[in-house]
Amino acid sequence: MGDFNGLDVHLGNVARLSAARTYSISAENPDGSKAGGARATEGAYSRQARELGPGWKMAPCIPLAPESTTTIADIEGPGAITHVWITVDSKLWRSLVLRAYWDDEETPSIEVPLGDFFCNGWGQHCQVSSAPIAVNPSGGFNSYWQMPFRGRAKLTIENLLETEVPELFYQVDFVKTEVPDDTAYLHAQWRRSNPIPYGEVHTLLDGVRGQGQYVGTYLAWGCNNSGWWGEGEVKFYLDGDDEYPTICGTGTEDYFGGAWGFIHPEGEYATFTTPYLGMPQALHPDGFMKNQQRFGLYRWHIADTIRFTEDLRVTVQALGWRRDGRLLQLQDDVASTSFWYQTEPHAPFPSMPGKDYLEVI
Predict the structure, then answer these.
(1) CA–centroid distance for 348 within its chain
(2) CATH 2.60.120.1390 domain locations along the chain
(3) How does pLDDT run across 317-328, given as a tens digit for each residue?
(4) Do you know which InterPro entries this protein is assigned to (predicted)?
(5) In a 3-state reduction of DSSP, which class is residue 163?
(6) What is the mean pLDDT of residues 317-344?
(7) Three-state secondary-structure class, residue 317
(8) Could you report the per-residue pLDDT of 65-104, keeping only the tens digit for each?
(9) CA triplet 338, 342, 344: central angle to 5 degrees?
């Protein structure tokens, strides 16, 4: 991602001096102002800290009102968000929607259910130990995606539920620094096919216009059939590709860096999490109410960015095997989150579905 005036992700450059200034937004410093932290005299922990006073964990979190949107960060630029940490009850991970707006744009550049943005789409904690996303016990969500902006950055959380969320803990770290002309904006979009219609593919991304680079995929894959589910190819249609793609993989597990059905040892799925790719989650039927296999998979195109200059479309097939050895087109439940950088303006996203369609059932 490079280094510009203090915004740097390369350990080899961490000792370089810079004129950039570092700030942090949290419930204890909601506007991120210099020396503005720990000043609250009232807050979520007013009762617990009543004998200690300001500076002693008076306001570590905020509530989210029912069916409302809360701004958690509103920052004047230029600069970049360098780290986001959030934690909230796991039952809410598909009921809260994270959005990001750059430079006063009308439609969001990031619009993803909270858990899916952090590679935990099934509402059950799994450890993720990757370069841009880290999820630690027990539900500590961390993003290190660079989020540069020039005029303004705004992050919001929408609560889709009819009930209040009593505690959202969060911290947004950012730097104020100059942003070069050739720096693009982070985008992330969520889509779900439940189920994928027979004979069709799941589209991760379509309608992207402009110049940029695709940098990551997360899939929450739920099986609606027995047997192997990962023969499908991931395809990237670049810069005018129509019927046939420029980039076509050889299988779903191949795209995510595995092989031979993720089997290890024999008869079992092996979960794994690495800096750039992984299958950190494999949820199995319990013989009673939990009757489907569900998986979480990610691949980050950081060292192998997929660059486009005009347009981009991304799809994945759902394929298994029939008993006679022929390929079977599956009708699985696939929810995808795509991450990419591009120039603005971006094309409007498809409308985010309501809470009932997002829900993990």
Answers:
(1) 18
(2) 1-182, 185-342
(3) 999 999 999 999
(4) DUF2961
(5) coil
(6) 97
(7) coil
(8) 999 999 999 999 999 999 999 999 999 999 999 999 999 9
(9) 120
**Tens digit of pLDDT for each residue in 136-149?**
999 999 999 999 99
Q: Contact 202/334 with Cβ under 8 angstroms?
A: yes
- Is residue 27 within 8 A of residue 170, CB to CB? The reply is yes
The verdict on whether omega for the bond into residue 148 sits within 30 degrees of 0, i.e. cis, is: no
Is-contact 168 159, C-beta < 8 A?
no
Distances (CA, A) of 307 to 191, 246, 303: 21, 11, 12
Question: In this structure, which topology does domain 185-342 adopt according to CATH?
Answer: Jelly Rolls (2.60.120)
Q: d(Cα 74, Cα 153) in Å, to the nearest integer?
A: 6
**What does the pLDDT read at residue 5?**
53
pLDDT at 206 over 80: yes
**CA distances (Å), origin 278, targets 48, 296, 350:** 41, 8, 28
CATH 2.60.120.1390 is right for the domain spanning 1-182: yes
Give the residues across from 158 on adjacent strands.
69, 97
> For residue 165, what are its two tokens?
């969320």
User: Which residue type, as a one-letter code, is found at position 327?
Assistant: L
